[in-house]
Amino acid sequence: MNNERLMGLDFGSKTVGVALSDPTGLIASPLEIIEREREDKLRKTFSRIEELIEEYKVTKIVLGLPLNMDSSEGERVRKTEEFKEALERRTGLEIVFWDERLSTVEAHDIMTEAGVKGIDRKKFVDKIAASIILQGYMDSQKEK
After folding, report:
1. CA-CA-CA-CA torsion for 86, 90, 95, 99, nearest 10 degrees?
2. Residue 1 domain-assigned (yes or no)
3. Which of 30, 82, 93, 129 is deepest in the core (most CB within 10 A)?
4. What is the DSSP string of the chain?
5. For the domain that residue 112 is a member of, what is the CATH number?
6. pTM of whole model > 0.85?
């Protein structure tokens, strides 16, 4: 991966899960969840992402694309595309989409295996989903 530091984002209506690659570009790890008061309020979300980009010297962002199970695009795809365009304008970084179907299901499976129960799951699911999205992208790049 040539020392690229990647950030994975799971963009939702109330939260954005954030994950980072390790410096070698081999492993994606959950970092944090950015919470929003309202779906249409993104200023603080963008500011926090920009802080993380600076702190971790991020060079590229992998953004989960919420396609429907039949590969069709719904309202969430449109909102995610708008988020991507605004984030590109603000950061100047390349942002690539990665199919996020089943990443949240997989995140819940991981937490079940780890014995995480109850309300604590909400604290972890979005950042774990972001790491699954990022890891999928990184693994696909190794195959090339």
Report:
1. -40
2. no
3. 129
4. -TT--EEEEEE-SSEEEEEEE-TTSS-EEEEEEEE-SSTT--HHHHHHHHHHHHHHT--EEEEEE---TTS---HHHHHHHHHHHHHHHHH--EEEEEE-TTHHHHHHHHHHHHT--TTHHHHHHHHHHHHHHHHHHHHHHHT-
5. 3.30.420.140
6. yes
- C-alpha to C-alpha distance for 129 and 46, rounded to whole angstroms: 19
CB-based contacts of 22-25 (< 8 A; 24+ apart in sequence): 25/1, 25/138, 25/141
Compute CA distances 49 → 5, 41, 90, 121, whole Å: 14, 14, 10, 23
List of residues 6+ apart from 4 with CB closer than 8 A: 21, 25, 59, 60
pLDDT for 76-111, tens place per residue? Answer: 889 999 999 999 999 999 999 998 876 777 777 777
Residue 95 forms part of a structural domain: yes
